[in-house]
């Protein structure tokens, strides 16, 4: 297995930590930025998911075009694109249509980095320690996410920093991460073999990607919108929630990595599916139950708790990545297969918001999450088709 070395590990760890700044700002500010600057209706907000998610669909083709760059250089390009997009959103998006263009560029950077990050991270690990290594990297990323969320909550509550400054900071973090990755060895993580991989042997992974795309989009689009539109919450609330997510994630992400190595991906993904069933049902029925009892605050706190739990479960995506690594017919299949998975899940996630927005408008937001519970149940069924990997190998621990 290709090793990247201690120096490159430290550089990548720092780059991943810096990306935590961009993720915190995105989580804390983005939905309120859209609501406050453009006064979007639910239809306009759901339409935005096409340009926002299209880069995820296109990522398999973009990684194919950047094939000769290798994983490391492609990751640097991704963060440069993310930084340019953040600057465009900050200063060159006075109206809805220009904003869509910069949003697409920003999103391309984010989505292009996803498969490269997992591929590079797994190349940092010894056999049997992939979950642990990804957990370590994600934990450092989360620690910075936590610190940024705390600073954001404080500054926005007491100083009212504007969106231009927040997005400028995000752009600077993207650029710094790109520089750190460019300092890694040029050959590190270089991809060889095919530009595109689509094999019947990976059909379970593709199915998981489809269901993940649908489940993810319900929470990315409609989860925050419930807090904003139904419970009238602003940036400060999202910053506090981001702080809680990050604080818990410092412990939770390494724990998920440990579970992946010890009891296997199938157990971890099945646990995620069961949790999501209850989260979706909670989103659907909490307001009606507690408001009928005159307990509006309890309803808000419950939805906030469900929001935090769902965001923490996003780290379970590590299990899909390590599953691909374990079932891959050859090492060269891993990176393009991860990219293919992202493209497949975004085919679904581009169109789920349209359906969800229609259901929200006609029937109410509750029914969006009832459908989400059904998707989670399908996901639970599909985990039974996965190959089991249980035993934690006895080899040496990675640093």
UniProtKB/TrEMBL annotation:
| Spans traversing the lipid bilayer | 54-70, 77-93, 99-116, 137-159, 165-183, 204-228, 234-255, 267-286, 362-382
Q: Which InterPro entries match?
A: MFS, MFS_trans_sf
Where in or outside the cell? Answer: Cell membrane
Keyword flag Transmembrane = yes
Q: What is the membrane topology listed in the Swiss-Prot or TrEMBL record?
A: Multi-pass membrane protein
Gene Ontology CC? plasma membrane
A molecular function annotated in GO for this UniProt entry is: transmembrane transporter activity
Domain of life here?
Answer: Bacteria
- Its main subcellular localisation, reduced to a broad class, is membrane
Q: Which Gene3D superfamilies does the record cross-reference, listed alphabetically?
A: MFS general substrate transporter like domains
Keyword terms: Membrane, Transmembrane, Transmembrane helix
Listed name of the protein: Major Facilitator Superfamily protein
Which organism's genome codes for this protein?
A: Desulfosporosinus lacus DSM 15449
């Amino acid at each position: 297995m290709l090793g990247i070395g201690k120096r490159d590990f430290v550089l990548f760890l720092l780059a991943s930590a810096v990306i935590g700044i961009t993720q915190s700002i995105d989580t804390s500010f983005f939905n309120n930025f859209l609501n406050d600057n453009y006064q979007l209706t639910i239809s306009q907000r759901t339409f935005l998911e096409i340009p926002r998610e299209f880069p995820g669909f296109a990522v398999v083709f973009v990684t194919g075009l950047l094939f000769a760059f290798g994983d490391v250089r492609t990751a640097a390009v991704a963060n440069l694109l993310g930084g340019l997009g953040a600057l465009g959103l900050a200063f060159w998006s006075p109206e809805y249509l220009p904003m869509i263009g910069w949003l697409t560029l920003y999103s391309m950077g984010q989505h292009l980095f996803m498969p490269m990050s997992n591929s590079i991270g797994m190349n940092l690990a010894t056999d049997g320690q992939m979950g642990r290594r990804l957990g370590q990297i994600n934990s450092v990323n989360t620690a910075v996410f936590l610190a940024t969320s705390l600073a954001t909550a404080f500054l926005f509550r007491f100083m009212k920093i504007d969106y231009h400054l927040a997005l400028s900071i995000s752009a600077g973090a993207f650029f710094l991460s790109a520089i750190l990755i460019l300092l890694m060895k040029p050959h590190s993580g270089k991809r060889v073999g095919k530009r595109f991989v689509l094999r019947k042997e990976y059909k379970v992974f593709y199915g998981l990607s489809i269901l993940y795309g649908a489940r993810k989009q319900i929470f990315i689009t409609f989860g925050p919108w419930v807090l904003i539109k139904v419970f009238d919450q602003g940036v400060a609330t999202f910053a506090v929630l981001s702080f809680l997510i990050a604080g818990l994630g410092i412990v939770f992400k390494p724990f998920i990595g440990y579970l992946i190595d010890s009891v296997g991906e199938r157990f971890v993904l099945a646990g995620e599916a069961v949790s999501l069933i209850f989260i979706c049902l909670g989103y659907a029925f909490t307001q009606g139950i507690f408001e009928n009892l005159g307990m509006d605050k309890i309803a808000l706190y419950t939805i906030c708790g469900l929001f935090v739990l769902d965001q923490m479960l996003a780290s379970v995506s590590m299990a899909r990545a390590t599953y691909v690594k374990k079932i891959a017919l050859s090492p060269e299949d891993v990176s393009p297969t991860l990219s293919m998975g992202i493209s497949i899940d975004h085919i679904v996630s581009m169109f789920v918001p349209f359906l969800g927005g229609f259901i929200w408008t006609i029937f109410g937001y509750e029914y969006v999450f009832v459908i989400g519970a059904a998707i989670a149940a399908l996901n639970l069924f599909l985990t039974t088709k996965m190959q089991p990997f249980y035993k934690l190998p006895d080899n040496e621990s990675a640093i």
